Predict the structure.
Amino acid sequence: MYEFLHPRQDNAAPPTVQLKSLGRVMAVTSGKGGVGKTFVSANLAAALTKRGHRVLVLDADLGLANLDVVLNLYPKVTLHDVFTGKAKLEEAIVQAPGGFSVLLAGSGMVEYSRLTPEVRDDFQRIMGSLIPQYDIVLLDTGAGISDVVLFAVSLASEVLVVATPEPTSLTDAYATIKVLATQQRRQNIHTVINQTARLGDGRAITAQLQQVLDRFVVTEPGRPIRLIHLGDIPLDPSVRQSVMRRQLLMQSLPGCPAAIAIAQLAAKLAETIIAQANLLSSSSSQNPTG
Protein backbone atom coordinates (compact mmCIF):
# COMPACT_ATOMS: atom_id res chain seq x y z
CA MET A 1 0.00 0.00 0.00
CA TYR A 2 2.80 2.38 0.91
CA GLU A 3 5.68 0.85 -1.01
CA PHE A 4 8.09 3.70 -0.29
CA LEU A 5 8.50 2.42 3.27
CA HIS A 6 11.43 0.15 2.52
CA PRO A 7 14.33 1.51 4.59
CA ARG A 8 17.82 0.14 4.48
CA GLN A 9 18.91 -2.08 7.34
CA ASP A 10 21.19 -0.28 9.74
CA ASN A 11 23.58 -2.51 11.64
CA ALA A 12 25.23 0.30 13.57
CA ALA A 13 24.10 0.42 17.19
CA PRO A 14 22.88 3.93 18.02
CA PRO A 15 23.82 5.63 21.28
CA THR A 16 21.31 5.11 24.04
CA VAL A 17 19.94 7.49 26.63
CA GLN A 18 18.51 6.61 30.01
CA LEU A 19 14.77 7.09 30.03
CA LYS A 20 13.51 8.95 33.09
CA SER A 21 9.93 9.48 32.05
CA LEU A 22 7.51 11.26 34.31
CA GLY A 23 3.95 10.20 34.93
CA ARG A 24 0.94 11.92 33.36
CA VAL A 25 3.07 13.45 30.60
CA MET A 26 2.48 12.86 26.90
CA ALA A 27 4.91 14.11 24.29
CA VAL A 28 3.21 15.08 21.02
CA THR A 29 5.88 14.84 18.36
CA SER A 30 6.41 14.22 14.64
CA GLY A 31 9.07 13.25 12.18
CA LYS A 32 8.68 16.42 10.12
CA GLY A 33 7.09 19.81 10.48
CA GLY A 34 3.82 20.89 8.91
CA VAL A 35 1.80 17.78 9.81
CA GLY A 36 -0.45 19.53 12.35
CA LYS A 37 1.35 18.57 15.56
CA THR A 38 0.68 21.85 17.39
CA PHE A 39 -2.88 21.93 16.05
CA VAL A 40 -3.44 18.48 17.53
CA SER A 41 -1.83 19.42 20.86
CA ALA A 42 -3.94 22.54 21.34
CA ASN A 43 -7.27 21.09 20.26
CA LEU A 44 -6.70 17.83 22.13
CA ALA A 45 -6.05 19.90 25.26
CA ALA A 46 -9.32 21.78 24.71
CA ALA A 47 -11.23 18.51 24.25
CA LEU A 48 -9.72 17.01 27.41
CA THR A 49 -10.53 20.19 29.35
CA LYS A 50 -14.12 19.97 28.19
CA ARG A 51 -14.23 16.50 29.72
CA GLY A 52 -13.27 17.99 33.08
CA HIS A 53 -9.53 17.31 33.14
CA ARG A 54 -6.85 19.74 34.30
CA VAL A 55 -4.55 20.11 31.30
CA LEU A 56 -1.37 22.03 30.58
CA VAL A 57 0.33 22.32 27.19
CA LEU A 58 4.02 23.15 27.34
CA ASP A 59 5.61 24.46 24.15
CA ALA A 60 8.76 22.35 24.13
CA ASP A 61 9.87 23.56 20.69
CA LEU A 62 12.34 25.93 22.30
CA GLY A 63 13.86 27.25 19.09
CA LEU A 64 10.82 27.61 16.80
CA ALA A 65 7.88 27.93 19.17
CA ASN A 66 4.51 28.66 17.55
CA LEU A 67 1.88 27.55 20.06
CA ASP A 68 1.24 31.21 20.85
CA VAL A 69 0.41 31.84 17.18
CA VAL A 70 -2.05 28.95 17.03
CA LEU A 71 -3.79 30.17 20.20
CA ASN A 72 -3.62 33.87 19.30
CA LEU A 73 -1.81 34.68 22.53
CA TYR A 74 0.70 37.44 23.20
CA PRO A 75 2.52 36.37 26.36
CA LYS A 76 4.39 38.90 28.44
CA VAL A 77 6.29 36.16 30.23
CA THR A 78 7.67 33.02 28.54
CA LEU A 79 9.66 29.94 29.41
CA HIS A 80 12.77 31.89 28.49
CA ASP A 81 12.09 34.31 31.37
CA VAL A 82 11.70 31.39 33.77
CA PHE A 83 14.92 29.78 32.58
CA THR A 84 16.84 33.02 33.05
CA GLY A 85 15.33 33.74 36.46
CA LYS A 86 13.50 36.88 35.34
CA ALA A 87 10.11 35.45 36.29
CA LYS A 88 8.59 32.74 38.44
CA LEU A 89 7.08 29.64 36.88
CA GLU A 90 3.53 30.53 37.92
CA GLU A 91 3.87 33.91 36.20
CA ALA A 92 4.52 32.23 32.85
CA ILE A 93 1.47 29.94 32.95
CA VAL A 94 -1.52 31.50 31.19
CA GLN A 95 -5.03 30.38 30.33
CA ALA A 96 -5.74 29.46 26.71
CA PRO A 97 -9.08 30.15 25.01
CA GLY A 98 -10.08 26.50 25.49
CA GLY A 99 -9.80 26.73 29.27
CA PHE A 100 -6.53 24.82 29.62
CA SER A 101 -3.20 26.16 30.82
CA VAL A 102 -0.22 26.85 28.59
CA LEU A 103 3.44 27.52 29.17
CA LEU A 104 4.79 29.25 26.08
CA ALA A 105 8.36 29.41 24.81
CA GLY A 106 9.80 32.44 23.10
CA SER A 107 10.47 31.98 19.39
CA GLY A 108 13.95 32.20 17.92
CA MET A 109 15.84 31.37 21.11
CA VAL A 110 19.05 30.13 19.53
CA GLU A 111 20.62 29.37 22.91
CA TYR A 112 17.92 26.75 23.50
CA SER A 113 18.25 25.01 20.14
CA ARG A 114 21.06 22.88 21.65
CA LEU A 115 20.79 20.59 24.65
CA THR A 116 23.21 22.05 27.15
CA PRO A 117 23.43 20.88 30.79
CA GLU A 118 21.71 24.12 31.80
CA VAL A 119 18.75 23.56 29.47
CA ARG A 120 18.47 19.94 30.65
CA ASP A 121 18.46 20.92 34.33
CA ASP A 122 15.99 23.79 33.83
CA PHE A 123 13.62 21.57 31.90
CA GLN A 124 13.66 18.80 34.50
CA ARG A 125 13.16 21.25 37.36
CA ILE A 126 10.17 22.88 35.68
CA MET A 127 8.57 19.56 34.76
CA GLY A 128 8.91 18.32 38.32
CA SER A 129 7.02 21.37 39.55
CA LEU A 130 4.26 21.17 36.95
CA ILE A 131 3.21 17.52 36.97
CA PRO A 132 1.50 17.37 40.40
CA GLN A 133 -0.81 20.24 39.42
CA TYR A 134 -2.43 18.65 36.35
CA ASP A 135 -4.19 15.50 35.24
CA ILE A 136 -2.03 15.48 32.11
CA VAL A 137 0.76 17.62 30.66
CA LEU A 138 1.09 17.68 26.86
CA LEU A 139 4.58 18.46 25.56
CA ASP A 140 4.32 20.05 22.12
CA THR A 141 7.82 19.16 20.95
CA GLY A 142 9.74 20.23 17.89
CA ALA A 143 9.82 17.99 14.83
CA GLY A 144 12.57 15.53 14.04
CA ILE A 145 15.20 13.80 16.15
CA SER A 146 17.43 16.61 17.44
CA ASP A 147 18.89 16.20 20.92
CA VAL A 148 16.49 18.83 22.32
CA VAL A 149 13.44 17.04 20.88
CA LEU A 150 14.60 13.62 22.08
CA PHE A 151 15.29 14.94 25.57
CA ALA A 152 11.82 16.50 25.79
CA VAL A 153 10.28 13.21 24.66
CA SER A 154 12.36 11.28 27.20
CA LEU A 155 10.57 13.16 30.00
CA ALA A 156 7.18 11.79 28.91
CA SER A 157 5.58 8.57 30.03
CA GLU A 158 3.67 8.36 26.73
CA VAL A 159 4.46 9.43 23.16
CA LEU A 160 2.02 10.44 20.44
CA VAL A 161 3.48 10.62 16.92
CA VAL A 162 1.46 12.75 14.49
CA ALA A 163 1.84 12.04 10.78
CA THR A 164 -0.03 12.56 7.52
CA PRO A 165 -0.47 10.08 4.65
CA GLU A 166 2.22 11.85 2.61
CA PRO A 167 5.29 9.69 1.86
CA THR A 168 7.77 12.19 3.35
CA SER A 169 5.76 12.40 6.58
CA LEU A 170 5.56 8.62 6.93
CA THR A 171 9.24 8.11 6.15
CA ASP A 172 10.20 10.66 8.81
CA ALA A 173 7.67 9.19 11.26
CA TYR A 174 9.32 5.79 10.79
CA ALA A 175 12.76 7.31 11.46
CA THR A 176 11.49 9.01 14.63
CA ILE A 177 9.82 5.86 15.95
CA LYS A 178 12.95 3.84 15.21
CA VAL A 179 15.10 6.23 17.26
CA LEU A 180 12.61 6.20 20.15
CA ALA A 181 12.59 2.39 20.11
CA THR A 182 16.36 1.96 19.97
CA GLN A 183 17.65 4.89 22.01
CA GLN A 184 14.88 5.27 24.57
CA ARG A 185 13.78 1.63 24.66
CA ARG A 186 10.20 2.66 23.96
CA GLN A 187 7.82 -0.26 23.55
CA ASN A 188 4.44 1.44 23.09
CA ILE A 189 4.03 4.49 20.86
CA HIS A 190 0.67 6.04 19.95
CA THR A 191 -0.05 7.34 16.48
CA VAL A 192 -2.53 9.82 15.04
CA ILE A 193 -2.80 10.12 11.28
CA ASN A 194 -3.91 13.61 10.30
CA GLN A 195 -5.58 14.70 7.04
CA THR A 196 -6.85 11.25 6.05
CA ALA A 197 -9.01 11.04 2.92
CA ARG A 198 -10.99 7.90 3.74
CA LEU A 199 -12.22 6.12 6.83
CA GLY A 200 -9.74 3.48 7.87
CA ASP A 201 -6.73 4.99 6.07
CA GLY A 202 -4.95 5.83 9.32
CA ARG A 203 -5.28 2.35 10.76
CA ALA A 204 -3.94 0.86 7.51
CA ILE A 205 -1.00 3.29 7.53
CA THR A 206 -0.18 2.45 11.14
CA ALA A 207 -0.33 -1.26 10.31
CA GLN A 208 2.10 -0.69 7.42
CA LEU A 209 4.47 1.20 9.68
CA GLN A 210 4.27 -1.64 12.18
CA GLN A 211 5.25 -4.16 9.52
CA VAL A 212 8.29 -2.12 8.52
CA LEU A 213 9.34 -1.69 12.15
CA ASP A 214 8.99 -5.43 12.79
CA ARG A 215 11.20 -6.15 9.78
CA PHE A 216 13.94 -3.55 10.09
CA VAL A 217 14.18 -2.40 13.72
CA VAL A 218 16.08 -4.71 16.05
CA THR A 219 14.94 -4.47 19.66
CA GLU A 220 15.79 -6.39 22.81
CA PRO A 221 14.36 -9.92 22.95
CA GLY A 222 10.86 -9.85 24.39
CA ARG A 223 10.54 -6.09 23.97
CA PRO A 224 9.04 -5.49 20.52
CA ILE A 225 7.96 -2.01 19.48
CA ARG A 226 4.16 -1.72 19.34
CA LEU A 227 2.28 1.07 17.59
CA ILE A 228 -1.08 1.93 19.12
CA HIS A 229 -3.36 3.64 16.61
CA LEU A 230 -5.19 6.30 18.60
CA GLY A 231 -7.25 7.55 15.66
CA ASP A 232 -7.53 9.57 12.44
CA ILE A 233 -8.31 13.21 11.84
CA PRO A 234 -10.02 13.54 8.44
CA LEU A 235 -9.08 16.08 5.80
CA ASP A 236 -11.46 18.94 6.63
CA PRO A 237 -11.54 22.50 5.21
CA SER A 238 -12.70 23.70 8.64
CA VAL A 239 -9.20 23.06 9.97
CA ARG A 240 -7.59 25.56 7.62
CA GLN A 241 -10.30 28.10 8.44
CA SER A 242 -9.64 27.84 12.17
CA VAL A 243 -5.86 27.95 11.75
CA MET A 244 -6.02 31.05 9.54
CA ARG A 245 -8.32 32.76 12.07
CA ARG A 246 -6.05 31.61 14.93
CA GLN A 247 -9.00 29.94 16.65
CA LEU A 248 -9.32 26.56 18.29
CA LEU A 249 -11.32 24.22 16.10
CA MET A 250 -12.97 22.73 19.18
CA GLN A 251 -14.43 26.15 19.95
CA SER A 252 -15.11 27.68 16.56
CA LEU A 253 -16.52 24.63 14.72
CA PRO A 254 -17.04 21.84 17.26
CA GLY A 255 -19.42 19.92 15.02
CA CYS A 256 -17.14 19.57 12.01
CA PRO A 257 -15.65 16.13 11.17
CA ALA A 258 -12.12 16.98 12.36
CA ALA A 259 -13.38 18.35 15.70
CA ILE A 260 -15.51 15.25 16.27
CA ALA A 261 -12.45 13.09 15.58
CA ILE A 262 -10.37 15.05 18.09
CA ALA A 263 -13.11 14.67 20.70
CA GLN A 264 -12.95 10.92 20.12
CA LEU A 265 -9.15 11.00 20.59
CA ALA A 266 -9.64 12.81 23.89
CA ALA A 267 -12.15 10.19 25.03
CA LYS A 268 -9.64 7.40 24.30
CA LEU A 269 -6.89 9.21 26.20
CA ALA A 270 -9.17 9.84 29.17
CA GLU A 271 -10.25 6.21 29.31
CA THR A 272 -6.74 4.79 29.02
CA ILE A 273 -3.70 6.92 29.82
CA ILE A 274 -5.26 9.42 32.24
CA ALA A 275 -7.34 6.75 33.96
CA GLN A 276 -4.26 4.52 34.39
CA ALA A 277 -2.19 7.41 35.74
CA ASN A 278 -4.89 8.28 38.26
CA LEU A 279 -5.12 4.64 39.33
CA LEU A 280 -1.37 4.41 39.86
CA SER A 281 -1.37 7.72 41.74
CA SER A 282 -4.16 6.50 44.00
CA SER A 283 -2.40 3.21 44.68
CA SER A 284 0.89 4.90 45.54
CA SER A 285 -0.82 7.34 47.93
CA GLN A 286 -2.52 4.46 49.75
CA ASN A 287 0.74 2.49 49.90
CA PRO A 288 3.47 5.12 50.36
CA THR A 289 6.10 2.53 51.27
CA GLY A 290 5.39 0.46 48.15
